Amino acid sequence: MGSRMGLPYCLHLLFLSWFLSAHVFCLLAVAQRSTYIVHLDKSLMPNIFADHHHWHSSTIDSIKATVPSSVDRFHSAPKLVYSYDSVIHGFSAVLSQDELEALKSYQVRFSIQRYNCWNLTTPYTSDFLKLNPSSGLWPASGLGQDVIIGVLDSGIWPESASFRDDGMPEVPKRWKGICKPGTQFNTSLCNRKLIGANYFNKGILANDPTVNISMNSARDTDGHGTHVASIAAGNFAKGVSHFGYAPGTAKGVAPRARLAVYKFRFDEGLFTSDLVAAMDQAVADGVDIISISYGFRFIPLYEDAISIASFGAMMKGVLVSASAGNRGPSMGSLGNGSPWILCVASGYTDRTFAGTLTLGNGLQIRGWSLFPARAFVRDSPVIYNKTLAACNSDELLSQVPEPESTIIICDDSNGNNWDLSSQFFYVTRARLRAVIFISQDPRVFRSASFSNPGVVIDKKKGKQVINYVKSSVSPTATITFQETYVDRE
């Protein structure tokens, strides 16, 4: 065993480091430097150091002394990015290849792994789950009363009604976090519901010191973090809808829980070093649960930063809930499947957003639609032409007669070299009165964009519509929108 009084580079340290080239845009590291995360055995910290941060910074200083030629007017010095002490013990640092080689010479056993790109992975949910505010599991759990949920994501939009503190008691005294001010975000935006807000982007800046962080605060410019936070712990917000669809009272699964947000995803990118820093701080602040909706694809467990940091959080008594990912249902598509992580998958409810198609012969067909306006397409002519029904080019749709007053039918794109999203694109540009899409592609339900009046129906219903159009001298149709149904209706 090495002496605990020796220099940091004389220690027999066991660490795992990995190369962070990846963020959402896969930017290249600048100046031939990369960010590494180094795991250390905390018990080996020499007594001469007051704390782990001093130990880590001393290690970086020793590298500067060992490789002095690496610092000149063309190259920056090795830099400590973060010190970690809650979910892992170690640090992240920006190092050149020469400095990494110097670190290898410090009698250290190590391995280096390179990561691929990160992947990002409703008011009716509680009703669908049969959660009743008056009886059963929900009131028995106190609606999540005083549970502190740390949401690691793209930040939060604090003005949302979901984050008001109506009916919330004082903040638990055990809470140790902060409400960090920044761009368009001040401490007054935190309250008894949103009790903490912090942000982490040193990894982005270490990768490219010239980058300008456009929203250098916990404010959400993407929407994903706000969405996740409201699902987990949104307060009761009455009178909400999606452009008239699904009206009701929005609430999270734990509406009386506290929220603390840790932003590590920025428009300028995201890095593993920032994620680990966010998890580290969340545990230190005293959260009970960490929610994270990100993950890596196809990497071994021992390289997975979320899995490694989640294990450390578990050892501190903090539950980590992570998304299963947006891929599937093929084999090997599950993300965040470590046994110490609560892996959460999304699914469909029995609710449908709809538009009703009424043909001129009186037949009514319910189709899927999210067209965001109370439009009313009444008794408009319908055409079906096998060639035009591909709906896959501007040139093709320019042949539609009187497009602004005509409803056309677009055939199922399955098996062809175009898809429903491209059909959406071209029919919007054609400024058609409305469109009847025939499709059984389940990906259509992932779209929140419906820019042209229309409905999506399956092949069976599509055949009924086509038969009517072919057999009628002057086929017409009426479409109404902003309808919401559940299976029992």
UniProtKB/TrEMBL annotation:
Belongs to the peptidase S8 family. Pfam families: Inhibitor_I9, Peptidase_S8. InterPro entries: Peptidase_S8/S53_dom, Peptidase_S8/S53_dom_sf, Peptidase_S8_His-AS, Peptidase_S8_subtilisin-rel, Peptidases_S8_3, S8pro/Inhibitor_I9, S8pro/Inhibitor_I9_sf, SBT. It comes from Nicotiana attenuata (Coyote tobacco). GO terms for molecular function: serine-type endopeptidase activity. Residues 1-22 form the signal peptide. Residues 35-105 form the Inhibitor I9 domain. Residues 144-340 form the Peptidase S8/S53 domain. Keywords: Autocatalytic cleavage, Glycoprotein, Hydrolase, Protease, Serine protease, Signal, Zymogen. The gene is SBT1.9_11. This is Subtilisin-like protease sbt1.9. It comes from the Eukaryota. PROSITE patterns: SUBTILASE, SUBTILASE_HIS. One of its GO terms (biological process) is proteolysis.
